[in-house]
């Protein structure tokens, strides 16, 4: 039996995914989470075989949650779930330790296939995402400006763009506020921007965070 934890901040979406998986033979959803923090806390105790991780959630978000989860439970496979199929998000999640990247428009059959494949130690990428990634490399596209950032710079950029305060970021990453600000200004320089607002707008433009609801 493949044990699964489903992490998504939208209750209806989470319920739909759970229902799809519970209908499949050999898969059991043992827990649900509405944030990255909840997913990490549950994984410390339950050690599921697979976690379906929504990329965009309140708090630390799916990217940082994936990194932390793989540190505390390396044997747990992560499937990143996102409505966005463009770079750099797929590559970022795979580099963070995700075994699969599946779009939220995936069919029930694809979702189940992804769970079964990663449970065997294999990788899975939704065909539309794999095609986009391959074409981007073949065409020599410059891609997203965020691709020039280091892993730590990207980590801090996403947290700033998601409205986390410098002190909160420092505490979460176990570094000083001064170090966070050093990374922050380095990011501004690399992206040729002048502040947090421009960083947030750029992140929204490239699909890294959602636009705030009206």
Automatic annotation (TrEMBL):
Keywords: DNA-binding, Phosphoprotein, Transcription, Transcription regulation, Two-component regulatory system. CDD domains: LuxR_C_like (cd06170), REC_NarL-like (cd17535). It comes from the Bacteria. Residues 142-207 form the HTH luxR-type domain. The keyword Metal-binding does not apply. Pfam families: GerE, Response_reg. Residues 3-119 form the Response regulatory domain. The modification 4-aspartylphosphate is found at residue 54. GO terms for molecular function: DNA binding. One of its GO terms (biological process) is phosphorelay signal transduction system. This is Two-component system response regulator UvrY.
């Amino acid at each position: 039996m493949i044990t699964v934890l489903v992490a998504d901040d939208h209750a209806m979406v989470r319920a739909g995914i759970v229902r799809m998986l519970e209908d499949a033979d050999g898969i059991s959803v043992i827990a649900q989470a509405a944030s990255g923090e909840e997913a990490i806390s549950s994984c410390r105790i339950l050690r599921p075989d697979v976690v379906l991780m929504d990329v965009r959630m309140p708090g630390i978000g799916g990217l940082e949650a994936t990194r932390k989860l793989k540190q505390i439970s390396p044997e747990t496979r992560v499937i990143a779930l996102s409505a966005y199929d463009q770079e750099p998000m797929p590559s970022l999640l795979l580099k963070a330790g995700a075994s699969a990247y599946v779009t939220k428009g995936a069919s029930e059959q694809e979702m189940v296939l992804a769970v079964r494949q990663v449970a065997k130690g294999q990788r899975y990428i939704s065909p539309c995402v794999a095609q986009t990634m391959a074409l981007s490399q073949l065409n020599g596209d410059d891609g997203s400006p965020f691709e020039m950032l280091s892993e730590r710079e990207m980590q801090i950029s996403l947290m700033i763009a998601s409205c986390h305060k410098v002190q909160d970021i420092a505490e979460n990453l176990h570094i000083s506020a001064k170090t966070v600000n050093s990374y922050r200004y380095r990011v501004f320089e690399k992206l040729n921007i002048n502040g947090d607002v421009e960083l947030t707008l750029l992140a929204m433009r490239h699909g890294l965070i959602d636009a705030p609801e009206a």
